[in-house]
Amino acid sequence: MNYIKPNINKKYFTYPHYRTLFQMLFQQYFFSLDRTADGIKNYLHIVRCINCGKKIIWHNDIYIYPEIQPQEANPDMPETVLQLDNEAGSIYNKSPRAACALLRLAIDRLCNELGETDRDINKNIGDLVKKGLSVEIQKALDIVRVDR
Fold first, then answer.
1. Domain check: are 83 and 132 in the same one?
2. Do 93 and 138 reside in the same domain of the chain?
3. Domain assignment present for 7
4. Three-class DSSP category at 15
5. At what angle do helices 96-113 and 135-146 cross, to 10 degrees?
């Protein structure tokens, strides 16, 4: 299933209460809060699902509730990598930068599990590519490695 980030302006997105794609047929309640120092109004969007009654909340256009849950990890992942992946997923909502740091460490551990022992993660990923790792996977690893 493709994950579509919850967005107040989209007709479809992955419904966080069930982690499935839903068409949004919601009743919306808008509460105008105080103006910010620069004069911009704050809005709280409380959206209730007509089907199940559960709520989703945005502050202005920022999704705040419920916390976005990470996707299930691949069960073939080595245990040391799986633990880091699960920890990154558990803190993503509170600190995306910390989650990315944990994912970078998970990539480093994965390289070690695949036989690469250099201290330089760049070299390890490059050596895996030389051994047949697809360029598409390399790009994905590089995004986490570089964009933290």
1. yes
2. yes
3. no
4. strand
5. 140
Q: How many domains does the chain have?
A: 2
135 & 84 share domain: yes
**Tokens 């809060």 correspond to what residue?**
33
Beta strand spans in 24-77 (E): 26-35, 41-49, 55-59, 62-65
Helices (H), 1-148: 79-91, 96-113, 121-130, 135-146
**Distance between terminal CA atoms of the chain?**
26
Q: Please name which of 44, 69, 40 lies closest in space to residue 58, comparing C-alpha atoms.
A: 44
pTM, two decimals, is 0.61
Segment (H or E) for 14: strand 12-15
Place of tokens 């705040």: 64
Q: What is the pLDDT of residue 55?
A: 81
The verdict on 99 and 138 lying in the same domain is: yes
* pLDDT mean for each 10 residues of the chain (148 residues): 73 71 59 64 74 78 76 86 89 84 93 93 92 91 74
Within a domain: residue 72?
Answer: no
Determine whether 87 is exposed, middle or buried from the number of CB atoms within 10 Å of its CB (0-12, 13-18, 19+): middle
For 45, the domain range is 12-65
